[in-house]
Specification:
- By secondary structure, the protein is an alpha/beta fold.
- It has two domains: 15-77, Arc Repressor Mutant, subunit A; 89-177, Glutaredoxin (3-Layer(aba) Sandwich), CATH 3.40.30.
- 38% of the residues lie in helices and 11% in strands.
- It has helices at 15-25, 37-47, 54-63, 68-77, 97-101, 104-115, 157-168, 195-201; strands spanning 89-94, 121-122, 128-133, 145-147, 150-153, 176-177.
- The chain has a six-stranded mixed β-sheet, with helices on one face.
- A hairpin with a 2-residue loop joins strand 4 (145-147) and strand 5 (150-153).
- Helix 3 (54-63) crosses helix 4 and helix 6 (104-115) runs parallel beside helix 7 (157-168).
- The two termini are 38 Å apart.
- 26% of the residues are buried.
Length: 205
């Protein structure tokens, strides 16, 4: 999403978020507070129903004494920032090489079939947005979907459909591996090395 649109309302942080933002800016010297641009954009996006509008970028630029274009450059570079309105449920599918090799095409097909939309689109009822994202950093558990700051891993077509249907029914799917018995990022079936260490530690952590 690389084209932002202007929404009708002026944006400003809530009182609580403003206190938080001031704390972020205080982490840097006064003449370097622009370093807080990414956390401020992220918090603003969360407050603004999941997307970064032109008024949002103008507001962040004013807070940080930055040129508007500098804020826009950041917002348009990183795929974590949505530059147009999104649905209530944003489904982010990683399709980079490790996920692709592990079957992300099947995950994408399940998402598109269940939701009836393609990447970058939102359902007519405004409930779901489907996004293609760059590496999620969970390659060992590929393929991966990111949803509400959680990762859903080891997906295939069937488990992806189950995941989406659960959200549609109002459930909150349990994050983590969906089709394997792996513990977090441990090998499927459990550890294969350092078993004595794990036993001493009382488990697989």
């Amino acid at each position: 999403m690389n084209i932002s649109v202007r929404n009708a309302e002026k944006f400003e942080f809530t009182a609580e978020n403003m206190i938080w933002a001031e704390g972020q800016m205080a982490k840097y010297p006064a003449n370097r507070k622009q370093s807080a641009v990414m956390p401020l954009l992220t918090r603003a996006q969360e407050q603004n129903n999941g997307w970064v509008s032109i008024p949002v970028m103008e507001y962040v630029a004013e807070l940080l004494d930055m040129a508007y274009i500098r804020v826009q450059e950041v917002a348009s570079f990183y795929t974590m920032y949505n530059l147009k309105p999104v649905g209530k449920h944003v489904i982010e599918v990683c399709t980079t090489t490790p996920c692709w090799l592990r079957g992300s095409d099947d995950v994408v097909a399940a998402c598109q079939d269940e939701l009836g939309i393609g990447f970058g689109e939102t359902t007519a009822d405004g409930e779901f947005t489907l996004l293609e994202v760059e590496c999620a950093g969970a390659c060992v558990n590929a393929p991966v979907i990111a949803y509400k700051k959680e990762y859903y891993e080891d997906l295939d077509n069937d488990s992806t459909r189950k995941f989406i249907k659960a959200i549609k029914s109002g459930e909150v799917p349990v994050p983590g591996p969906q089709t394997t018995d792996r513990h977090k990022s441990a090998p499927q079936g459990g550890p294969t090395t350092l078993k004595e260490f794990c036993a001493v530690q009382g488990g697989q952590e």
